[in-house]
Design brief:
The chain contains two helices and nine strands. The chain has 140 residues and is mainly β.
């Protein structure tokens, strides 16, 4: 279980059993409404390195949360992705929209990244400064 689910404290995840499917939702810290309703969270170094590589593009309301992660690559990717950089308190640091394959990206101050389908962050109203919170175990 993470601490700081309110989005006001540093969040620390218990990574559990390596290879386990860890799911939850990212919600607006102010009102608790789901922003990304179905989020898979990485649980080991191999999953962090792989990210969405070799996986289908996330659907509406789906994402991959990579922890820890302050930079991403899209080497060998078949499609562009939106990358949302979050600090340890789950405040959005930066959004990189439609990062094309064969690119590298990073954000100073980021501790986690959320990978989404292209153009999803803007559609969900995810912008720099927005405060999110983690809700563990949400159905996806």
């Amino acid at each position: 279980m993470p601490t700081g689910v309110s989005g006001t404290e540093e969040i620390r995840f218990d990574h559990g059993t390596a290879g386990a499917v860890l799911t939850g939702a990212l919600v607006d810290a102010a009102d608790g409404r789901a922003v990304v309703a179905s989020v898979q969270r990485t649980s080991n170094a191999c999953e962090r390195l792989r990210g969405l590589l070799g996986r289908p593009c996330p659907g509406p309301g789906q994402g991959l949360l990579i922890d820890p992660c302050g930079s991403v690559h899209t080497l060998f990717m078949a499609y562009p992705i939106d990358v949302v950089y979050l600090d340890r308190r789950l405040r959005v640091v930066q959004v990189t929209a439609s990062l094309r394959p064969w690119r590298l990206s990073f954000a100073r101050g980021a501790a986690l990244t959320l990978e989404l389908a292209p153009n999803t962050a803007a559609a969900l109203g995810i912008t720099a400064g927005r405060q999110l919170a983690w809700r563990p175990g949400a159905a996806g």
